[in-house]
Amino acid sequence: MTYHIFISHAWKYSFDYNKIVEWLNEAQEEGLLTWKNYSVPEHDPKIDPNTTAGKNKLKEALKNQISPASKIIVLAGMYASYSDWIDFEISTAISQNKYIIGVKPWGQEQIPSVVNNNADIMVGWNKKSVIDAILDS
After folding, report:
1. What is the rounded radius of gyration, in angstroms, for the C-alpha atoms of the chain?
2. What does each C-alpha distance from 73 to 8, 17, 76, 132 come to in angstroms?
3. pLDDT tens, position by position, 93-112
């Protein structure tokens, strides 16, 4: 079985996003799971997310990326910086009946309520928790 996964990252690859991808790739190499990354790659710099047309294009791209995914991983620590986009990703995932895995950043006690209230499961910042959440859902 191949897990189709979308990882929320608001188009800027961060340490957290890269670490989740690394964990999933390691798990695949270890034979624990097979996965396909449906996350939006770095966006086209010609699309300006600060314009109405740009926002609409990015929203459409997100819908197209989330649609084939069966699991959505939301990195709760990115919420403060990218709340509008993460809200959109979560609402899109909910409307498409996707399984949402919330990941708490290392050492963070406060989790944004939109992530906490909409995640099917919240897990800690470690490879085993993330992989187990994917496999157990």
Report:
1. 14
2. 6, 10, 9, 13
3. 999 999 999 999 877 777 88
Phi/psi class of residue 106: alpha, beta or left (left: φ > 0; alpha: ψ in -120 to 50)?
beta
Of 7-11, 32-36, 116-120, the least confident: 7-11
2-38+48-136: CATH superfamily: Hypothetical protein MTH538 (3.40.50.9200)
Check if the beta carbon of residue 57 is closer than 8 Å to that of residue 84.
Answer: no
Bridge-partner residues for 100, per DSSP?
Answer: 72
Instruction: State the Cα–Cα distance between residues 82 and 114, nearest whole angstrom.
Output: 13
Please state, in angstroms and rounded to a whole number, the distance separating the CA atoms of residues 102 and 104: 7
Place of tokens 């499961």: 121
**DSSP alpha helix (H) spans, 32-122:** 52-66, 79-95, 113-118
Question: Which of the 8 DSSP states describes residue 78?
Answer: G
Q: Between residues 83 and 116, which one has the greater pLDDT? A: 116
Residue 55 and residue 67: Cα distance in Å, rounded? Answer: 18
> Could you identify the residue written with the tokens 């097979």?
34
